[in-house]
Write a structure and sequence with these properties.
Two copies of one chain form a homodimer. The first copy, chain A, is α+β, with helices and mostly antiparallel strands. Helices cover about 20% and strands about 35% of the residues of chain A. In chain A, the strands form eight sheets. A six-stranded antiparallel beta sheet of chain A has the order 20-21-22-29-24-27. Chain A has a five-stranded mixed beta barrel with strand order 8-11-9-10-12. Chain A has a four-stranded mixed beta sheet with strand order 14-16-18-19, covered by helices on one side.
Amino acid sequence: MNLILLSGGSGQRLWPLSNNIRSKQFVPLLRGENGEYESMVQRVYRQITREDPNARIVVATAKRQVSTILNQLGDKVDVCVEPCRRDTFPAIALACSYLADVRGVGPEEPVVVCPVDPYVDDSYFAAVHRLAELAGADDAANLTLMGVEPTYPSAKYGYIIPETADAVSRVTAFKEKPDEQTAAEYIAKGALWNCGVFAFKLKYLLQAAHARMDFKGFADLQQNYDKQKKISFDYAVVEQEPDIRAARFAGEWKDVGSWNTFAEVMADPAIGKVLMDDTCRDTNVVNQLNIPIICMGCQNMVIAASSDGILVSDKQRSSHIKPFVEQVEGEARFAEKSWGSFTVLDVQPEATTIRIVLNEGHRLSYHSHEHRDEVWTIVTGTGRTVIDGTVRRVHPGDVVTMPAGAKHTLIADTALQVVEVQIGEEINVADKTKFELNL
Amino acid sequence: MNLILLSGGSGQRLWPLSNNIRSKQFVPLLRGENGEYESMVQRVYRQITREDPNARIVVATAKRQVSTILNQLGDKVDVCVEPCRRDTFPAIALACSYLADVRGVGPEEPVVVCPVDPYVDDSYFAAVHRLAELAGADDAANLTLMGVEPTYPSAKYGYIIPETADAVSRVTAFKEKPDEQTAAEYIAKGALWNCGVFAFKLKYLLQAAHARMDFKGFADLQQNYDKQKKISFDYAVVEQEPDIRAARFAGEWKDVGSWNTFAEVMADPAIGKVLMDDTCRDTNVVNQLNIPIICMGCQNMVIAASSDGILVSDKQRSSHIKPFVEQVEGEARFAEKSWGSFTVLDVQPEATTIRIVLNEGHRLSYHSHEHRDEVWTIVTGTGRTVIDGTVRRVHPGDVVTMPAGAKHTLIADTALQVVEVQIGEEINVADKTKFELNL
């Protein structure tokens, strides 16, 4: 099957383990198959390929997520990068053009669009697979949706009202997130949760896209993406389309959108350097710092620590985190990058200290800073630096100094660990000019 | 008056803000007179000198606390350093010998011994002052104690049983920490809390000391301190002495021995980078890291973070912290030193990164390491390094490399801030050889 995984998402929901570089779907706290931790996106990828080893997966995402996706999934998936934010309809149109023009998917082939981060069991992707088959059938509706059988009257989800209780039924209406009482009334009439999964023939979406947007094909759309209007798939397609069917799904489906729900699916109640006394109850602790956390008498709490900050919250309250994170948000203090990772160790008025890990065979961009000097101390590994065109080999203990204005890069011949000290009165990430480097 | 302040104490009670270098009495979280934060020892010093501007104060303490005491009190107090741990009787004998031999205190003069960390109002030190006068009178008992009028039947304190309810009374018995019911019975009979404050004429204690220990005077006792037996003042003196009186004190007295009690006297519910939502209740948060803590829905908790670790505890449970701290305790990751301070920023298998602040006019010892290379990056200030005898001026941005074996020091001509990277497979604080340096 052809699958477009929509990977958007905020870095605030699972703060401080998610940030503006690492959205919640990349936080590696679930239990993987071999006992190691995996992220939601890794879990979903594993489940999809178990259901359909030949699935053609395109992750539709923003530029800032690309490094993390490649780090977590390798090059096993295609990544379709939105040059800028234009809501779901242009994003899906871009991914569909990619499937058609780059991957050669035929116009009659079905395509399923699915959020990248549902927490589900394997039967869910069997249902996704069937959805693709339904959408690809000759007598298919223009749009086929997955509807989840509700287990309680939730006010957090939108509802699909099907015509009948059959496994597949015409849809008579969509309802926005209702209050709990209204939700209960919908459910009594057979309503289903809208889990954001829908399928169509490729030609259907491309026609809709060409009707609304002026573009020739994938390359052209990508190039002129910033000229497109922001519009959601619901508004552009679903609300205009009379021919929609819903397929029921009765298995487990969880939208782990906050610490409260995420705690239910975490691999272990305590991850990292954590000590809990025996009076702690229903408490989840994740510690990504390398200092210990001691918890005593904690009841029904979630505690999380990273280089970005520390959260100590009652589980119920944790779903209200967003405005607080907005108050404290600054530059991300840790990030996976295409070349490795960085962690900010210390920020002082005139100095910032960072630990950089550069994976074997990778290198930093060749760049300079106008307003800060930098010093690298090589801690482990071997590699080369280039400073204003001069190449030098470096080993553990070596020190490289880069005054403001000096063009510099670091190349990892084996995996490198480096401590970087930035010195200056105006240190900020925007102070960076990149250059070509031909070695 | 002559006052011996006993400054011992564990670094575990207020972990992670106290550690094996900074005991709880040095944690600066109380509200000082001018709005700034002060420690228990600073508060006590301020109260004593307000009561008696001419008080002669000797702090009896261990070597590891000397830098912190001097940093917090300056040279306004005498410090009598116990060369090793020998319990309270040898420590008091050493301080009394110091008063007699170094400070010229006469044999008939009264001396008061007092813990360094009671949380009290000013009337307490007025009572201490009266205690000195009582002990110095011609008809004084050999030993005069302060007894605090109990406000509840506590199982945490020892009790003094006085003969009468008079302001000053003979003591008929001492009782160890009882259970609450027994405590209530004691209190019904007029018992007082033993707050560890007692006074005597200097000659009394020196006679007792010479009777039990073989020494000539202060210098001799200090030199042979390690040969003395460990013995408590209670066992060596109080239990043998029939002539003891107690003076009643009816004011506020608090033994802030755990986070639970310390939280009651903290200057602010939130200190440092802290955000609490409006559903937090009766919660104290102290953050000494420079990343934010967000607290939501916390009820009756204490949360504290430093470079040593993070505590998240129900207030009641926090008094049971000790065994957990023992499990996580390693090298202290931050400390005030006589020359400034250090903070460990990062510990990796083969590298440790530290921020060093060196106060103006101070210098590090001249030393070398056998098993690690070190790199200093000067961040702010100016000074000089000496590496294997060679002096060099340093400024911000300068880098100094010290291979294993190289003798090195750093001298602060103005206050220096330095990032130190230690590199090696066996990094530990014991790997340090000191040398003489004559500039």
